[in-house]
Amino acid sequence: MNINHKIIDSSSEENEPINEYFDSSDEENDFHYTIITGAKFHTWEEFEVYLERYALQEGFSFKKIRVEYYLHQKEMKGLTVDQKKLHVKRRTYECTHSGNYVSKKIINFDNQRNRRSYQINCPWHVNATKPKKENTIGITSVKLEHNHVMNPLIAEMAPKFRKFTPEMITDVEFYVKHNIFSATQIYPLLRAKYSDYPILKKDLYNIIQKVKVGQKEVVKNDIGINRYDMVLYLFLVVDNNIRSRLIASVLLEDETENSFIWVLQQLKKFQHNLCIFHIDLNLKKNVKPKLGLQKFSEFRAEFFSCRNSLVYEIFESKWKILIEKYPEISKYLKRMLEPTKES
After folding, report:
1. What is the pLDDT of residues 56-113, one digit of tens each?
2. What is the rounded CA–CA span in Å between residue 9 and residue 38?
3. Same domain? 145 vs 62
4. Residues 95 and 116 reside in one and the same domain
């Protein structure tokens, strides 16, 4: 369905303020949304909710492309997002198909795919302004013409309309907190509760992973089933690859506050152990070019002999010999490895 409207003059007497009959909580299917100049809204949030429902009704998606403030840029520093909203002067909304794609690469056009851009210079746009001495937002100008076919499945395809609501994210956090990590299990639960909301499994996967990363530290206990008849606590973290890592295991005689305080104090004393595999990679990268192949092979053998020393005095003796024997890399050894050699 193509929409072909003209710009409506805001001076027309037929233009009624939208906020007289629009309620952002109204979800009746028979309500028909229209965009006219001169329409008034109480807040920017109310106006954008109305725009979203209008776009869903017509079958397209839009984006915010311009915002102007009453304050200067220096005055905006230090303000939160909510505080900045109070000083918005004007906003412009355009169809997601607006603009023309301009490639930034210089390539051989004979070797590229003949794929059309999403940007096809759609002229649809809406301008809205909040006068400084008024408490309402008004639509100042509109162009409601599209140059593309409307999409009745836009609610399921446009990322803008597929965002999880705060209530849905809270539900996912609840499931993950209670050890339900599978999207296969969570998906039907969300579908039953939010039947009118489009939920794609790939979006659910992303939310689950974000929640898992957000819950950084997990403590799991195993009460009284070991031969010591003590409480076993396993401390796990989620790394940047979204994988669970066991960092400590503790046996406690009880589950009192003092016991947990003691455990946390001990955890703070832990030293970070460097990965010998990555140390070796860094040596090959930073030391080998300075020493050369033959000399680096000798150094590497001596370095690992030093590293594998079980007696502290022997380790220190071999370490000082390395510093003196290889002066061309002594700065690197002192700067990168010496501060953490005790690990």
Report:
1. 888 888 888 888 888 887 887 878 877 888 888 899 999 988 888 776 665 555 655 5
2. 8
3. yes
4. yes
Residue that the structure tokens 């589950």 belong to: 255
Last residue of a domain, one of 177, 195, 214: 214
User: Are the C-beta atoms of residues 130 and 137 closer than 8 Å to each other?
Assistant: yes
Using an 8 Å Cβ cutoff, are 220 and 248 in contact?
no
Cα distance between residue 83 and residue 76, in whole Å? 9
Question: In this structure, what are the phi and psi dihedrals at residue 82, rounded to the nearest 5 degrees?
Answer: -65, -35
Alpha carbons 164 and 35: distance in angstroms, whole number: 26
CB 87 within 8 A of CB 71: yes
Task: Dump pLDDT digits (tens) for 154-167.
Answer: 776 777 777 778 88
Q: How far apart are CA 299 and CA 281, in angstroms?
A: 14
Say yes or no: 203 and 88 in one domain.
no
237, burial (CB in 10 Å: exposed 0-12, middle 13-18, buried 19+) = middle
Answer whether residue 13 is part of any domain.
Answer: no
Asked if the structure places residue 116 within a domain, the reply is yes
> Can you tell me whether residue 136 is helix, strand or coil?
coil
pLDDT interval class at 126 (50, 70, 90): very high
Pair (203, 263) in one structural domain: no
**Same domain (yes/no): 43, 141:** yes
1 pLDDT more than 70 = no
30 and 137 co-located in one domain: yes
Place of tokens 């003196």: 324
Q: What are phi and psi of 63, to 5 degrees?
A: -145, 155
Beta-strand ranges (E) seen in the chain are 40-41, 62-69, 88-95, 125-129, 137-143, 217-223, 231-238, 244-252
Q: Give, in order, the Cα–Cα distances in Å from 60 to each of 147, 197, 199, 309.
A: 11, 17, 18, 68
Q: Is the dihedral of CA 143, 146, 152, 156 positive or negative?
A: negative
Residue range(s) defining the domain that contains residue 332:
276-340
